[in-house]
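REQUEST ID: PR-0412
SUBMITTED BY: lab tech R.K.
PRIORITY: routine
TASK: structure prediction, single protein chain
INPUT:
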Amino acid sequence: MADPTPLAPAAPAADDTVPASLGFAVLTVSDTRAAETDSSGDILADRIRAAGHQAVARALLRDDAVAISAQLREWIAHPRIHVVVSTGGTGVTGRDVTPEAFRAVLTKELPGFGEVFRALSFRKIGLAAIQSRALGGVAENTYLFALPGSNGAVRDAWDDILSHLFAPGSGNCNLAVLIPRLEE
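STATUS: complete
OUTPUT:
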């Protein structure tokens, strides 16, 4: 298993229940990329930090469902990680196992995430959007999102969906305010 980037402390919460700055973990799933060529992971980590959150852990794993699930479980158990976002392994080839690994740890799926992502993708890439098995969900008190591995898909998912779901002042769309209640 890849060693994640060292964890940084979360920013203090305004109301002691929801951190002002959420802790994100970034997972790249690829049989072909290395740390120095992980452009989609770099884009995601940069956007997380630019939004005022913390990219507190990062790993790159091969397309191996057991290893992916193990990494997810480790991050789900960590109190400073509120959101895990992966890039890669959501296609339809035999090696694409990220959705299966995610479903092995999810307690609740958020089908609307994948639906909205594919709708946005359809406007940009047409029918190729049906090849994406992007998904979102919850495991214990951690949100999990699996994105395709392309730079464009990562930009679209962050810029058009995820940044809004975790932005301060985003009203009833803000998933961060639900974190204390996820294990009710």
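NOTES: The chain has a mean pLDDT of 89.
REVIEWED BY: pending
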